[in-house]
Design a protein that fits this description.
The chain is of the alpha/beta class. It is built from 12 helices and 27 strands. Helix 1 (11-19) runs parallel beside helix 9.
């Protein structure tokens, strides 16, 4: 029986596996974690709006009834495309007839990897837990200081990167300070917290049209976020960051820095034996296979794909469509049928800024504010996996809307360091 190996259970790998559900093939799905993560809402976990189970589902549960699929939890270290072998970190090797690589992307610090320790990004649940811990503990540390001068660095939050993730993080952090935590402290006024969003381009949300970017900026400023554009970060340390702007070199003292400025393709792409692009992505053929190896497909953020001559964006709808196309093309090859060319269907772009604030672009239709925010809510609830997840998110969002409270504000480790026992307990509760 034909053996298909799928690496990664993000949006691309998940859709590819589902598309092969009724095929007479054997599938092995490998992921380093035991859950599929709905990444567009990961920032909600980082900002205490949602708990982890609301946006994550166990992979084995998702595919419990798909009898042609076996799930393995493990980390792939190498791929030998000549021998059609996948190597795991424990030394195990798997052979394949067809391979779908959907291992996504990770953080990119543009060659300054040492910044990761002081400016965490948000790509995994562990990242979200770390950001949430640092954010909430910053207010706790500020409460322990004796005067405003000493507490100010703890009450200053910097978000680097004005894309969708950075905008969503900055807007939500401002809401936490001004609404959620207001009145809970005695020495500090959480409403005095500074949230500074720094973006290297001349506007936030660069992929959006300029008018929507401007509306997003105004909505952020209305929430209390300080938006700084055309700023290039040159240094980050435990006490803040240094950046250059039109005014020259500036220093921002901030104990909490969040990185949302860049992503890099999975390093597994280097194993495929093809020249990568500048972002480390794998160039693919029109059918999403790699040159010289029609049995190997690359989908999602790892793929440098084009559609009608235009680059395919690294967004979840694109990954889903690519996963389904790769699966169909494998079945076409098995039937000796011509493969199909991947064509990306752009259904629009959405970004939420905060409470009743968002921007949306659906084809030529553009709107913002409360209507865009409602549309964003319904779209994200619709695409969540499982009825229980949708119900949990709807309940948490309804409660937050009515009370301004956030339901997942538990942190472990009084000084921000999590003990091994606490980490094991937290993982078991997920």
């Amino acid at each position: 029986m034909t053996h298909i190996v799928i690496l990664g259970c993000g949006f691309g790998g998940l859709e590819a596996a589902k598309a092969l559900a009724s095929a007479d093939v054997s599938i092995t799905l490998i992921d380093r974690s035991n859950h599929h993560l709905f990444q567009p809402l990961l920032y909600q976990v980082a900002t205490a709006g949602l708990s982890a189970p609301a946006i994550a589902a166990p992979i084995r549960h998702i595919f419990a009834h798909q009898r042609n699929l076996t799930t393995l939890m493990g980390t792939v270290t190498d791929i030998d495309v000549a021998q059609r072998l996948v190597m795991l970190e424990d030394g195990a090797k798997l052979t394949y007839d067809y391979l779908i690589v959907a291992t996504g992307a990770t953080h990119s610090y543009f060659g300054r990897d040492e910044w990761a320790a002081v400016a965490p990004g948000i790509k995994t649940l562990d990242d979200a837990f770390e950001v949430r811990r640092r954010t909430l503990l910053a207010f706790e540390r500020a409460e322990r200081e004796n005067d405003a001068t000493q507490s100010a660095p703890w009450l200053t939050f910097a978000v680097i990167g004005g894309g969708a993730t950075g905008v969503e993080m900055a807007g939500t952090m401002a809401e936490i300070a001004r609404h959620t935590l207001h009145g809970e402290f005695r020495r500090i006024d959480s409403r005095q917290a500074r949230v500074v969003l720094l973006e290297g381009n001349d506007r936030v949300l660069p992929p959006f049209p300029p008018d929507l970017s401007e509306k997003a900026r105004k909505q952020l400023e209305k929430l209390g976020v300080e938006v700084r554009t055309s700023c290039r970060v040159t240094a980050i340390d435990a006490d803040g960051l240094t950046f250059t702007s039109a005014q020259g070199e500036e220093r921002l003292v901030a104990k909490t820095v969040i990185w949302a400025a860049g992503v890099a393709a999975s390093p597994l792409g280097k194993s495929l034996g093809v020249a990568l692009d500048r972002a480390g992505r794998v160039p693919v053929e029109p059918d999403l296979s790699i040159a010289g190896h029609p049995e190997v497909y690359v989908v999602g953020d790892l793929a440098a794909a084009t559609s009608d001559g235009k680059p395919v964006p690294g967004v979840s709808p694109a990954a889903k469509q690519m996963g389904r196309t790769a699966a169909r093309n494998i079945l076409r090859r098995l039937r000796n049928q011509p493969v199909e060319i991947f064509r990306y269907r752009d259904y629009g772009s959405l970004a939420t800024i905060g409470r009743k604030a968002a921007v949306a672009m659906l084809g030529k239709v553009k709107f913002s504010g409360f209507s865009a925010w409602l549309f964003w809510l319904f779209v994200h609830i619709y695409f969540l996996i499982g009825f229980r997840n949708r119900l949990m998110v709807m309940a948490d969002w309804a409660w937050a809307y009515m009370t301004f409270q956030r339901s997942a504000r538990i942190v472990t480790g009084a000084d921000g360091r999590e003990s091994k026992t606490a980490a094991i307990k937290r993982q078991s509760e997920m």
